[in-house]
Specification:
The protein has 2 domains: 148 residues, 3-Layer(aba) Sandwich (Rossmann fold), CATH 3.40.50.720; 107 residues, Dihydrodipicolinate Reductase, domain 2, CATH 3.30.360. Helix content is 35%, strand content 23%. The strands form 2 sheets. The protein has a 7-stranded parallel β-sheet, sandwiched between helices. The protein has a 5-stranded mixed β-sheet with strand order 8-9-7-10-11. Helix 7 runs parallel beside helix 8. The termini are far apart. 42% of the residues are buried.
Length: 272
């Protein structure tokens, strides 16, 4: 029998956690090895199968990350920044591949992952879909080809329960546009327009966040000049696309050297 990679899922009661459990059961080459929830959660100590059905059978929900990671080949983590930093420490201690889909992390919080990345592979991305990562590369190329006569706007839309804005994907796209232009995004980022803002500054990259209903994820990058507009767009119609990408990353990470990676590495899209 072919050996499969054990996957531990953090935040297993959440929307993405449940989706990951389901996708693990449907994905060749992996099996569910662990399920983690925060201390005090009422799922702790219960068989996941009794909570989520056959996909979770035989796996007991725990708040001990090290225990769950110790029997897995990879942990897939779509939680919150502080939790992710703690999970990174546990992943480094056990040598498990850490796949991070957590969004809303600050530059300082991302930097706190560096010690763990010296001990184990960490694969982090604001979005794990193939289509979005292709869009990131295209955005970089278009931004490099068009000068500052073209204003750049990143417009994103998500469901009404999303807690961070702009989305991690929007920031990925903004970073790609800034890199294409050869500028620092922090220096040209334009967010939260309100009131008398004055004319738009040449060369700035604007962000608009829309929240409503059950929108899974929509991202537009608009390049607008006085004469024409070019709009690049990605629409996610099913959260499975994020789970599928995360599991692809978990498999890709097996046997990799410790380090910080992203989905462009996983998909072979990394350019210089």
């Amino acid at each position: 029998m072919t050996e499969t990679v054990g996957i531990a899922v953090t935040g297993v009661s959440g929307r993405m956690g449940r989706m990951l459990v389901e996708m693990v059961s449907e994905t060749p080459g992996v099996h569910l090895a662990g399920a983690v929830e925060r201390p005090g959660h009422d799922w702790i100590g219960k068989d996941l199968g009794s909570l989520l059905g056959p996909a979770g059978d035989g796996v007991t929900v725990t708040d001990d990350a090290a225990q769950a990671f110790g029997v897995a080949g990879a942990v897939v983590d779509f939680t919150a920044p502080r939790a992710t930093i703690a999970f990174a420490e546990a992943a480094a201690a056990t040598g498990v591949v850490h796949v991070i889909g957590t969004t809303g992390m600050t530059v300082d919080e991302i930097a706190q992952l560096d010690p763990a990345a010296k001990k184990t592979p960490i694969i982090r991305a604001g979005n794990m879909s193939l289509g979005v990562n292709l869009l990131v590369q295209i955005t970089k190329q278009v931004a490099a080809a068009l000068d500052a006569d073209f204003d750049i706007e990143v417009i994103e839309a998500h469901h009404n329960r999303k807690v961070d804005a702009p989305s991690g994907t929007a920031l990925m796209l903004g970073e790609a546009a800034a890199e294409g232009r050869g500028v620092d995004l922090d220096a040209v980022s334009d967010r939260g327009r309100d009131g008398i803002t004055g004319p738009r500054e040449r060369g700035h990259i604007g962000f608009t966040a829309i929240r409503g209903g059950d929108i899974i994820g929509e991202h537009d990058v608009m390049f607008a000049s006085a004469e024409e507009r070019l709009v690049l767009r990605h629409v996610a119609s099913d959260r499975r696309v994020f789970a599928r990408g995360a599991l692809k990353a978990a498999l890709w990470g097996q046997g990799r050297a410790p380090g910080a990676y992203d989905m462009l590495d996983v998909l072979g899209l990394k350019t210089g």
